Amino acid sequence: GFNYLMLGDYDFAISDLTRSIDLNKNRKYAHTFRGTAFFMKGEYNRAIQDLTQAIGQDKNDYLACFHRGTSYARLGNDNKAVADYTEAIQIQPLRAEAYNNRGIAFFRMGQRSNALSDFSKAILVAPKRCSSYDNRANLYRRLGRTRLARADEKTLSQLKHTKGCESEEGLPMITL
User: Fold this and answer.
1) At what angle do helices 62-74 and 96-108 cross, to 10 degrees?
2) Is it the case that residue 175 has pLDDT exceeding 70?
3) pTM value?
4) What is the 3-state secondary structure (H, E, C) of the chain?
């Protein structure tokens, strides 16, 4: 199932992982990977069910926390998204995508200072991650902090010009 997931064949991944789960409901990461496949297909409620099961099996499953948070965010439940991203950050504090996405959820909740803090942490952790500069620049503009927005836009432009933007590692990012 994992190989199908990595190849982007989500239906086969789900089918294969379902058989695996049927054989052993406690198989480590089977729920994480099937939940991720459901997420990639846009079936967020089904993803949340599997990812919740995965977190129940292993509270330190970063991917399950991150993808469940992103599923909640896609469904507009930013409070639950923030809680899951916070768990993901506690598990792996050097993963920029969780800070970036939690910042977006904070932004949508009207918590601009928390959003700004998270975008800045994402940049500190991964200084070549372009999406975080883009989100912080957009937030600075909305806050009327044009000079800071321009600085981020200049850095973003330089990174793009030199092809210095880091890969988003295949994890789903959401942007402002």
Assistant:
1) 30
2) no
3) 0.89
4) CHHHHHHCCHHHHHHHHHHHHHHCCCCCCHHHHHHHHHHHCCCHHHHHHHHHHHHHHCCCCHHHHHHHHHHHHHCCCHHHHHHHHHHHHHHCCCCHHHHHHHHHHHHHCCCHHHHHHHHHHHHHHCCCCHHHHHHHHHHHHHCCCHHHHHHHHHHHHHHHHCCCCCCCCCCCCCCC
